[in-house]
Amino acid sequence: MMLEVKNVSVEVSGRLILQGVDMHIRKGEVVVLFGPNGSGKSTLLKTIMGFEGYKVISGEILLGETRIDGLPVEERVKLGLGLMYQHPPQVRGVKLAQIAGRLSGNAGLIKEMSERLSLSSHLSRDINMGFSGGEMKRSELFQLILQDPGLLLLDEPESGVDLENISVMGKVLDGYLKEEGKSALIITHTGYILDYINARKGCVMIDGKMWCVGRPKEIFENIRERGYDKCMGCDDRAQSAR
Ligand SMILES: Nc1ncnc2c1ncn2[C@@H]1O[C@H](COP(=O)(O)OP(=O)(O)O)[C@@H](O)[C@H]1O
Ligand SMILES: [Mg+2]
Questions:
Q1: Residue of the CA atom closest to atom 6 of ligand 1
Q2: How far is the CA of 155 from the centre of ligand 2 (A)?
């Protein structure tokens, strides 16, 4: 098992957001996470990363054999976790090329990835400063791939990205995930990314609870046709959540 989230409840600013969440990701597996706005998806990813303010009040999180809840973010990154933010931070005074060089000693890979993600001319700019929404997402994916994590956490990678660039990002991501043992947890609203990656498992989060598990494309079609309201009243829930 790559990641195990066991009965995890999380408080943010004194508010209970995640309520007994269970989920797991096997080594080499790509899991897609769906759910309406405000259901707690980003909170789950930030909790797995160990960001300040995301307080695990019960349950445990395991990465491989190691219990990681309680470890600082840097330790989790060393163990192979990498996050692509929903809203990437801007970093004044640090060039994209500088961080790229720090993340990877492989100049060939930096060149190849910056070209594939159309970021060659961004390397000399401050990270994400003045980048368009799509450029920021490509820059995040670029940095993540150079970091070479075993488990990628992607928070709406295609939001704000045009269709052509979703295709570019989707192919880069798929190539990376085909490497031995790479796993990912991907949040998507649009479902576009599903056309590029081989994801066999999807789950739906509603009101801070893991609602059901199934095939990502089937879940997505159901949500698109019937909306999350119907999802909430779904009879299959008790069965599929197991
Ligand atoms: N720092 C915070 N302080 C207070 N509430 C927060 C904070 N971060 C998230 N929340 C709340 O937690 C809930 C879940 O948010 P989030 O995980 O971002 O949802 P999603 O990613 O599914 O849209 C929301 O109601 C949001 O307002
Ligand atoms: Mg979110």
A1: 12
A2: 7
Hey, what CATH topology would domain 3-240 get?
Answer: Rossmann fold (3.40.50)
**Structural domain boundaries in the chain:** 3-240
**Among 218, 210, 113, CA closest to 169:** 113
Q: Indicate the SS3 state at residue 118.
A: coil
Closest ligand 1 atom to Cα of 53: 1
pLDDT (tens digit per residue) in 44-91? 999 999 999 999 999 999 999 999 999 999 999 999 999 998 888 899
Residue 47 in contact with ligand 1 by CB distance below 6 A: no
Atom of ligand 1 nearest to the CA of 44: 17
CB atoms within 10 A of CB 5: 22
Q: What is the pTM of this model?
A: 0.93
- For 201-214, letters b (16+ CB in 10 Å) and e give bbbbbbebbbbbbb
Å from CA of 9 to ligand 1 middle: 14
